[in-house]
Amino acid sequence: MSYLKIDHAGKTFPASGGRENVVLQDVRLDIAKGEFVSVIGHSGCGKSTLLNMIAGLTETTSGGIILEGREVNAPGPDRAVVFQNHSLLPWLSVYDNVKMGVQKVFGRTKTKAERHDWIMQNLDLVQMGHAAHKRPGELSGGMKQRVGIARALAMEPKLLLLDEPFGALDALTRAHLQDAVMEIHARLGNTMIMITHDVDEAVLLADRIVMLTNGPAATVGEVLEVPLARPRDRIRLASHPDYVRAREAVLRFLYERHRFVEAAE
Ligand SMILES: Nc1ncnc2c1ncn2[C@@H]1O[C@H](COP(=O)(O)OP(=O)(O)OP(=O)(O)O)[C@@H](O)[C@H]1O
After folding, report:
1. Span 74-118, pLDDT tens digits
2. Known PROSITE patterns for this protein (predicted)?
3. What is the residue range of 151's domain?
4. Distance from the alpha carbon of residue 50 to the mean position of ligand 1, in angstroms
């Protein structure tokens, strides 16, 4: 039995004039515990919709999402999401933003002192302990994303769902945060699913890359194993034959699909 099973899942939205917009159709995927999966596909194909279905924020229209043998049909603290644009509450300090989730999950099982230590431990994990008292407005984009990751991790979710978390960041900050996510994954061994538009990011981080076909009715087109040992070093990997091969395979998939769309228009 797989840890997370996306079982023939589909999503149709109502469209204007009584029509229907079939966004995803028959998506099938089995994800193992501790796996890092990247999801890539052209803009608008349904990546966020898929992640939202796993998060329980969007209902599936057909099929289902099964996490550890139980069907997902609502959001829950066992699935934390980090969005591209941080969703921190601006009137709360960094500390209190993380505390909100911690109270919800550990309000009954950890003492106040334990919860405090846990909040600080998670902020330190993303090197943001020093900014615990600051408000989100006083932080850079990269720092806000770090806090968003800390807040998600502090809930000890079974699944960490990352929806283009670094899309709005400059290349250097992005690289630092990619390294931070790889370290966290190595240390905690959590199951992570990350949407990205960035082929290098997908190859660097993932154990497997799930490539979605173009919409409408997008589905899994190809799944690529990334056979690179960890820890991964971006500089050393850049010329590694397996890295280059994986990168090419993803580019080819996207390029061929893209051409197909143009030809069909
Ligand atoms: N709540 C909604 N109601 C109606 N249609 C929606 C809704 N959410 C998404 N869609 C439609 O579903 C399709 C897929 O959107 P989605 O955001 O999942 O794509 P995406 O692959 O994540 O795009 P991008 O890469 O540009 O972020 C789009 O056509 C979008 O208009």
Report:
1. 999 899 999 887 789 999 999 999 999 999 999 999 999 999 999
2. ABC_TRANSPORTER_1, ABC_TRANSPORTER_2
3. 87-156
4. 9
Dihedral sign computed on CA atoms, order 33, 36, 37, 42: positive
Which of residues 96, 121, 156 is at a domain's end?
156
CATH number, position 196: 3.40.50.300
Residue 81 Cα to ligand 1 middle (Å): 17
Number of Cβ within 10 Å of residue 150's Cβ equals 27
| CA 261 to ligand 1 centroid distance, Å | 17
What is the number of the ligand 1 atom nearest to the C-alpha of 52? 18
Are residue 176 and residue 257 in the same domain, yes or no? yes
The SS3 call for residue 205 is helix
Same domain membership, residue 121 and residue 44: no
Please check whether residues 172 and 151 belong to one and the same domain. no
| Domain termination site, one of 132, 156, 180 | 156
**Per-residue pLDDT for 235 more than 70?**
yes
Q: Where are the extended beta strands (E) located within the chain? A: 4-14, 20-31, 36-40, 62-67, 70-71, 79-82, 159-163, 191-195, 208-212, 220-225
Looking at the fold, whether 257 and 167 belong to one and the same domain comes out as: yes
Total structural domains in the chain? 2
The finding on whether 15 has its CB within 6 A of some atom of ligand 1 is no
Cα 156 to ligand 1 centroid, rounded to whole Å: 28
Does the Cβ of 45 fall within 6 Å of ligand 1?
yes
Contacts of 71 (CB under 8 A, 6+ apart): 64, 65
Q: What is the pLDDT of residue 134?
A: 97
- Pick the atom of ligand 1 nearest to 163's CA: 22
For the chain, give the mean pLDDT. Answer: 92
Query: What average pLDDT does the segment 5-15 reach?
Result: 96
If one residue of 20, 23, 53 were mutated to test the ligand 1 pocket, choosing by the most ligand atoms within 8 A of its CB, it would be 23
